Amino acid sequence: MNNIFEQIHMEEILERIEHLSVSSQPIWGKMDVAQMLAHCSLFQDIPMGKSFPPRGWLGIFVGKFARPVFFNDKPLAKNMSTIPTILITDKKDFELEKENLKQKIISFQQAGPENCSSHPHPFFGKLTSEQWGKGIYKHLDHHLKQFGV
């Protein structure tokens, strides 16, 4: 499974982000491209220790058992639910969101696994830094595929 902490995987994600444009259209889902970038950026704040969304009751009861379904090489399902605090519905500036996300990815990767937040994931609970690195890659990959890149 790819990990955002590996330089080659970070560079691949950044290159795919560069292939997005303000006119990129989703293959599935309701977010436009700028909203998707903002969503990914807000998600990035969780393992960086800048955001602390609460755990939902479903995650508390089944999150730990659902990890094997997520932490594997299978792609994420289309139109899956998201963390309510990072659901983006308002208009966003594409160029600003694109640059913001790229900078967060670079900062996260450069800070290294030892600087991952110990705050639990809102659904999966406590994750190792390796799980965070793989999860961030998988989340970004999912949304980039959503826009065909």
Describe the structure.
It comes from Lysinibacillus halotolerans. InterPro entries: DinB/YfiT-like, DUF1569. The chain is mainly α and 149 residues long. The longest helix is centred in the C-terminal third of the chain and has 18 residues, at 94-111. The chain has helices spanning 7-18, 33-44, 57-70, 94-111, 129-146. It starts with 6 loop residues before the first helix and ends with a helix. The chain has five helices and no strands. The chain has one domain (7-146).
Domains (count)? 1
From the alpha carbons, calculate the radius of gyration and give it in angstroms.
Answer: 14 Å
* Pattern of helices and strands: HHHHH
Helix amount: 40-55%
Strand content: under 5%
Q: Catalogue the unreliable spans.
A: none
Q: What's the total count of β strands?
A: 0
Rough outline: globular
Q: Roughly what is the average pLDDT, rounded to an integer?
A: 94
InterPro entries: DinB/YfiT-like (IPR034660), DUF1569 (IPR011463)
Protein name: DUF1569 domain-containing protein
Pfam families: DUF1569
Organism: Lysinibacillus halotolerans
Secondary-structure blueprint of this entry?
Layout lengths: L6 H12 L14 H12 L12 H14 L23 H18 L17 H18 L3
Helix pairs in contact: 1-4, 1-5, 2-4, 2-5
Question: Outline of this structure?
Answer:
Pfam families: DUF1569. With 149 residues, this protein is mainly alpha-helical. It has five helices and no strands.
Key traits:
149 residues, mainly alpha, 0% strand
